Structure formats: C-alpha cells, structure tokens
Amino acid sequence: MKNKSIDEYPYKFEYAQDNVYGHTVSLLGQFDLPKQGIHLDIGCGWGSMSEKLMENHPIHYIGIDADPDAVNHLVLEGKEAHTYKLSSLKDNIEFIDKILNGRAISSISILDVMEHVLNFEDLLQTVSVLSKQHNAPVVISVPNFAHDDIVFKLLCNKFDETNTGLLDETHINIFTQEKLLEVCKKHGLHQISKKDVVMEKSDQYFPKELLTLTENSSLRQLLLGLRKNMGADGKVNQLVRMFIASHPTQIPVNRQLARPFLSIVTRTVGDRPEELKEVLLCLTGQECTDFEVLVVGHNLTVEKQLLVESIINATPEWIRSKIRLIRVNGGNRSTPLNAGFENAEGQYMAILDDDDIVFSNWVEEFKSLSNNHYGKILKSVSVRQEYEPVKTSFSQKTSIAVSGFLNDYPADFDFITMLHHNECPGLCLAFPRSIYHDFGLRFDETINTIEDWDFIVRAAFICGVASTPTITNIYRWWLKGESSQSLHNNEEWEENYRYVQNKFNSQYLIMPPGNAKRISSLINMQLENRDSNNGYPINDELIRKREIAHLILVSNSWNITKPLRLVKRILGKKTCVPEIFTASELELDEFISNSQNSKSWKITRVFRKK
Amino acid sequence: MLHKKCLQIQSVLYNNEAPRIIRSIKSIVRAADFAINKQIFTEITVYYGDGSQEPVFTDQELKDLNSEFGEYIQIKYDYFESNLGSARGHNRLANHSDSDFIMIINPDIILAPDTLLQLAEPYANPKQKVGVVEARQLPVEHPKSYNTRTGETSWASTACVLIPRLVFEEVNGFDADTFFLYCDDVDFSWMARLKGYRIIFQPSAVAFHDKILSKNAAWQTSDAEDYYSAEAGLLMAYKWSRNDILENILTYFENSDVSYYKKAAEEFKRRKRDGKLPEQVDSNHRIGEFINNNYGKMRFSL
Q1: Is A407 close to B216, i.e. CB distance below 8 A?
Q2: CATH node for A260-505
Q3: Cβ contact (<8 Å) for B208 and A284?
Q4: What's CA A492's distance to the chain center, in Å?
Q5: Interface confidence (ipTM) of the complex
Q6: pLDDT classification of A382: cutoffs 50, 70, 90
Q7: B182 within 8 A of B228, measured Cβ to Cβ
Q8: Most buried of A23, A468, A592, B111 (most Cβ within 10 A)?
Q9: Which tens digit of pLDDT belongs to each residue from A458-505?
Q10: CB contact under 8 A, B148 and A392
Q11: Which option is the CATH number for B6-208: 3.40.910.10, 3.40.50.410, 3.10.180.10, 3.90.550.60?
C-alpha cells in the first residue's frame, strides 16, 4: 500500500493563531509547563501545533495517531510519535504507560478526535486518569453541532455532509457545548478555561439562497434574535476547552421528574416583615403544594437578613422545607428577579412580591392550565385592592385594606394592548422555565421600573399565553407608604417607557393567531376617527398626545387626586377621561389641557418630582 | 404579659374535608409552639365538635393525630350526632373545659406562626377591659371599620377570635336559641359591649381563611349563608330593639320575589306567634349599630 503524501492527507491543517491549534497553544500558555514534561497529543495527525508548542514551552512532544503515514511524517521531522488505534480504557492506559516509560505528562490535547472515535467515553476516561495522575491540564476540541448554519439548515430539512468540516462524513459522534461539558464532568474532567473558534459563516453556509441563511430574510433575523441570548454557541465552529481532572460530577438521571411544578420568586429588601409573613401564610394555604419558594433578599443588612430568616424559620416544617433564601447585593429591581429565576428548579416560574396576596387557588389554577397549555405562559386574573399602612395601640406596623376589589385587569392577554402598556401585574403569570434557562431571556437590569412589563412582552411573543378568567390574587396598591409607584419619579417612568417601547419596536415578534383581525379593527377605528376629525390623518402628533395622556393617567398626581375627582363627581361634575386608543385629537387636547391646568395638578407638582 | 394560661381552641365541623382540617392543625401546632415558648399559654387543647352526618375523624385517626402533634397540642373530638349550628356547637364545646381562654376558629383557618401571640397582646393589660380580640382574615380582609389608633370595632367575626372564659361566661355564651348559623358573633360582641367590654380588631394577627371570588370579583355566598343571614337580620333588629328597621326589612322580605327572603319572614312570624323571640336589649340604642344593612360602619363593600 502506497504511503500518503502530506498533500493527500485529508486532515492536514496548518497552524494558525486563530484556529483550533492556535487556541490550544494559547490555552496551554496559561501554564508554566515543566522542563522535559511530556505533551501528549492524542490523535495528533500531522502534528500541526507541535512546532509552536515546543517553541513556547520546554516540553517534549509525543504524538499518537492511528494513521501510520501521519506518525511517520512526525518521526521524519525528528519528533516522537506512535501509531495506536484508540481502544478500551485498560488498553489505552497500558499503551500510554508503555511509551511514557516513567516520564511525567505535563499537558494533553485531543483535538477534533472525539467525533471520530467509536468509544469516546473510554478516551475521556483515559485522559481523566492521566490528568489526575500527572496533574496535567487537558485541551479538548470538537466541532459544534449547534452552529447556526447547521441548526438553520436542519430547519429546512437540509443535512449536507462534506469531506471535512462541521459535518464531516466520517464523524460518528456529535457534540454541543452542553453535551461536551456534561460527559466530561461525568468522567471527572472539569472545565477551567475556554477559547472557542468562532466563525460567523462556517463551511456549512450554503446554499446561500436558503431563507434561513440569507442575511436579509425576516425569518433569519427572527431566528437569530431568538438564539442570540442562548449564549455565543450559534457562531462557534469548534469548542476548544481546557479541563483538569478531579472527582466526577453526579448527573441527575432524569431531572425533569424531580422538578416542582412552580418556583415562586419573592424579592424582598426586608422592610415589610408583616407583609412577607402574610405572603408565606397565603402560600401555606395553597390547595396545590407542588411548588418551591425562593425568597430573594436584596441588599439585606445583617439585621434584615436575620429578620427575613426568622420569618422563614417560623413557618410550619412542611413549607419551610420548600423555602430557600438567596441573598443578592447590588443591581436594581431586576437583579433579584434574575437571581431567583436563575436558581429556580421549577417547570414554571412566578413572581410573588413580598406584599402580594394570593388565594388558595393561585398555584392550582396555573397547574390546571398547564395540563392543556404546557409551554405557554399561564395567566390567571388579578384584582387590585388599595391598602395603607396601619399601626394600632396593640398591633405591630401592618396594613389595612381601604377599598374593595377593583376589577382593573382583563381576563385575556391582549398582545396588542400589551405592546402599549402593561395590564398584567407580575403575580398573575407563570413563565415556563425554558424561556429563562434555554432562551436566555433576562429581566433588564438597566431599568428600575416596568422591568416586569419588558420581560412579560418579550416572553409572551415567544411562548404564547394561556388564560383563565379565574381570579387568583390581589395586587396591593399602596395609597400611602413606599412602593415602586412612589419611589421613582415621572421622568424615570417616562424614560423607561420609551426605552422599553423602542426595544419592542426593534425586534421581530411572533404574533399569535387572532391578532391580524385585531390590528385590522384598530386601523378601522383610526380611519373612522380620521373621518370624524374632518379628514385629518392620524399623525405623529396624535401619537405623541396619546402618550402624554397615558402618562398623566399613570402619574402619581392622577392617583393622589382621585379623591378630589370623587368629590367632583358627587357634586355632579364628572372628569372626562378619554379612551386613549379611540379618542380624537380634540378630546386628547381637552383632557391634557384640563389636567395640566387644574389646581390639583399644580398642587401635586411636588409628587411628580420633575 | 399573660402567664401560665390554658387555652382551648375550638371549631365546629360540618362535613369538612379531613385534609383541610389537618393542614389547619399543622399551622396551629406551629403557632402553639411559639405561644408556649413565649409562655403566653402553658397548655393548648384543640377541640372539634362535629355536626356532620358521618364523623369526619375515626378514633384511630384522632389517635394518630394526637400521636403526631401531642408534643404541642392535645386534640379532642365531640361527635354531636346532629347539626347543632355554630352557636350551640361552640357553647357545648366551651362547656367541656375550664380553660382560661377560648379561641374560636373556622375549621379551615390557617394561623400565622405568631397569630396566638398577636391575639393575646391586647389582654396584656387587664385594665383595658378587652372582651374579644379578632384576627385579620386573608386573603379577603373583612370590610368592617375599626379605629386605626385603638383597634376598637363594633363586633368581631368568629372566623378567628380569642375570648377570655370569664367574658364568655358573663355573656352566657352565644345566643343559640335565637341564632343558628349567622350573626351569633355580632350578637355576642354586642352583648359583651353591653357588659362594658371592648371589641378589638388586631390587624397584625393574621389568619388565612380561604375564599374564592366570582369571575367579576364579587363575594360568593352559599344558599345557607343567604337564608340564615336573612333570618338573622330580622332577629338582630328585633333583639336589639330596632323595631323601625325590623318593620322595613319584614316589609321588604314579604314583598320580595326572592324565596329565601319570604322564607325568613315566615320563620320570624312563626317564632313571634310561638313566643320564641329573644328578650329585647339595648332599648336606648347605645350599642347596636345598623348602618346601610350592615352591623356597623364598613370601610368598603365587597
């Protein structure tokens, strides 16, 4: 049989700083490798990085490969190389021990080998044993099967194998980051560093006319948008990771079975101990107890931490065992939500703040909805109730309800209205864990208000929403005392509102069925409105006025002056509040002018903190 | 502070589900642990009176419950063999012991860990002449008014209240001959006030009392609640010497198309004929408060 020349060898790749060899040398460059220590290059091929590695470190290079031509080539270059076909753990160790002959290994590499090897777990076990025995770091590289180009082509039923590259026809194993890390941990190899090879367009970027690949198609942009928060994997061509061996990590056999249905995330800054006690009492009264509670203490002082801990520890044992306290420092209102969702084990995740109140059916209704709508966001109905702080001569500082139930929030989730403003208090929703843990959606930590609206809308267009008209909770609305409404001034609310709307506006949205007609009816209304406005077209000015009217309606001043309007109404002078979407420009002008010129608006200027 | 006092927590069952009662017991155990630890009470008994057609608990189940929770509370059980109603049921249970305090709760009430401590607080100073202390219910807070400085209120709902035995006996317990299910607590509170006691609403003593709202956020009532509330409304107006209100209600009920209103009016007239109406009290209208079809002022309506 004729020996292969270097030109005939299919896997003869040159060393380059920005390919897998350069990245491997760079990773090993973090170590001061000992003089005369062995670098073991398993599946070395033509030893592309051997020269550079020896140039950088005073090591002795040993290559091992099943191809005798590649091995001969290295030997002819004066390097040590051995022909060996990888086998069982026992045989591998026996062979390597024999060639080492007592010499110490300082580092190991297995570059683009595991995808070709029948028993790759034996290989991992082999390097794990050697790494542990010699305290040697191991660099492993594999092609990334989760590259955007492969994923987007598979969506179109295209699987194009090639001679080399991401879908090399000789590959018998495929890897993603998750699989690589999991199987390595299983064999005691723990990642200590990484330097992946990133390729915007891989060798699989063809045919270029495919809609999922062609740069300007909406479909590609939508898919890229969905994948962008999943991590950088989509552009990684080869995963290049460095490991060190220690004890194996236990991988749960089937984590899905052990997950509670709902993770309840309760953020607290520790200044509402009575209300937190009430939240936990409401949870003690749940009909469905298939949940866990993550109390996220935000910026807790030691005193407040002890207080929160004492409230948790006081609960009956069965629920205490379901509660975890997580402490978070820094950031803003979004930070504890992200920390809570990050630590959540549940199939679904819900926000229940430390002053919310839930009925006994809160968890049960979510679970029941999930039976037919698993994967969607689950929505029940909140009622609003106004509260004030109270402290009698016998009681601790606590709260008093000062209104009945205000049926302010709709039973259905209206995707169009939600783009304009939030009509879902966070506690009426449960989010599927995948939206956070797989799709990487996060609460935006750059805004300190309406962070829930931002998250809800982005999540809703991905997951869809299933609603029940059943009331399951009370959203407490504080008329006095601190709340997010009182802590932030109007300017901040307005800025955040614009920021979030721009964010929605800049991305592709998946509109669920039923909304085309809804948009059409809105256009109809606008056209009718234009006719009734003597032919004035709907313009930017009208949109701006709608925004001003909306901001007045959600302002502190509007809220504070509610009793005055009540008195006015009793005296027979009703305040005309326009329906923002359908009001004419004239009606909006009248409302804005009346509001801003009213005595009450001027008196309450201080509450707007402009 | 109170010291070395015995407490009987009592509840009248009527076809309740055992798991819900056990969930309530678990919360009582935790609250009892704190109350005993703080030496508010030294001994706590939970007494269930059962008016169901079939006993809710078997002897073995009670034995198991006592074995599980006996470290903190003693659980006792009286099978009534008939539906005595809440007023008579509670009178009977109260007679089973001579505890210093009686706590009346609904069978499905879940206490917060500090509910007993908070309920006991107003009794710390005997000079305050407190007759009944009521807990705040969650998730639906009772809308009746209370003085936000003193906690004083017109009457206390017996969904969750703490009463000194001396007061209970001085008032002769609930008026079971007049009230079967509803308003026995309003009447009891007013009788205590007639004797000079204050009724205190304690907002930091919380108790979860499950309620489900209708889809339009309205309070939902059962048929029994509708009828017995109507019947009790007539009897309250009569007993508390508000003949003017009684006449108005009777006329309204008799002319109404609502069947339970008509039935309540008939029952009232039957009692009157049979001489079964209670003795009238508060002739100068010092205590009884009938405001907009409610017993006392309301902060809001449900």
Answers
A1: yes
A2: 3.90.550.10
A3: yes
A4: 25
A5: 0.95
A6: very high
A7: yes
A8: B111
A9: 999 999 999 999 999 999 999 987 666 666 678 888 899 999 999 999
A10: yes
A11: 3.90.550.60
